[in-house]
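Minutes, project check-in

Agenda point 3 was the complex the collaborators sent over. CS summarized: two entities, 428 residues total, and the question is how they sit relative to each other. Sequences were read into the notes so everyone works from the same version.
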Amino acid sequence: MAEAPTIHVDIVSAEGEIFSGPATMVFAPASQGELGIAPRHAPLLSLLKAGEVRVRTPDGEQHFFFVGGGALEVQPTKVTVLADTALRARDIDEAAALAAKQRAEEALRDKAGHITQAEALAELARAAAQLKVLERLRKLRG
Amino acid sequence: MPGTKEIRSKIASVKSTQKITKAMQMVATSKMRRAQERMRLARPYAQKMRNVIGHLTEANPDYRHPFLVTREPKAVGFIVISTDRGLAGALNANVFKQTLLLMREWQGKGAQVSLCIIGTKGLTFFRRLSVPILANVSHLGDRPHVKDLIGTVKVMLDAYRAGALDRLLLVNAQFVNTMTQRPAVVQLLPIEALDTEGLQEHWDYIYEPEAAYILDGLLMRYIESQVYRGAVENVASEMAARMVAMKAASDNAGKLINELQLIYNKARQAAITKELSEIVGGAAAV
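CS then shared the predicted structure for the full assembly.
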């Protein structure tokens, strides 16, 4: 029996490499529906939605990877999955952006009243330095 | 023996401080190694992303995404990455100084400046200035995650899309090596100089859905991965700077202990000599 053709699969995320190796078949949750990619597939680019990427390796094993979304690039001999590490949706992203804005606003509002521990420490260090200078001056005079 | 007791307790206190700084040094060393590893892990993703985006823009010359178009810089946004904790030498101060210089430069050219701050140290520093801070995220810890950065980056990307920003710059501490960390500035938007080398053949992809939509998703993720890389690199720099600072502190404590020990020995010796001469004097008088 002739050896089955394989396709090289790379699954990478921003935080690290997840899988790299040959496969006889790859299934991915594309945004328009599940895609099955066999070796020598036509070049394709698609976004992924949250779901499972299945990789069938030449030794007949199946590997499952969960992706929160991302992008899929297919070339005849290579499949690259650019996986998101986080679950994303328009409203989740929107909420996160809103939270980031609020944090900034709060920090600016606090400017006058509330002082953080770091600032208090800096203030203390400044006072201590001033005292030291005063002491030295006193010694020089006395 | 006046004084010797005080000196002894002083030595004990310096010793306990030294213990702490030594422990911090060791912790920082191991954390730095892990952060460096994460920097390495983030590289293939960004590289792949650049390749795909490069090819995509090459294959679709008629479509210009707003992130790829250079506009007149009337408003400039800065994403400044700082640490959450201190005791890291001049690391944050250098990043802030560089940011201030750049801000002055752009303001001198008549551009509006706004900020996005990552890390508490940056927040305490920049909120004293009268520059708008659009977004903030702190307490990312020693292992920043892309998840925690999405919202913050999105605020800046949305501002750019809406035309409220014409440039977006990233400032963070670049990890050169263990001894050197210097502030680095990267232009995030508009995206410039994509590697389109090695793309001689002009084949095109099948797009699913359309190319513009995919490009938008890819570009957004690309920027996020850049900011993530900056955050991880900043952690590596922070740990390296802390390691060096704590090593210096431990060495100084060691020197101090030696000096104090010398003073203590002298005081002790003086006391003994005095006692002896008193006894001898007393014996001679009898």
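Noted in discussion: Chain A has a mean pLDDT of 83.
Follow-up: revisit at the next meeting once the mutant set is ready.
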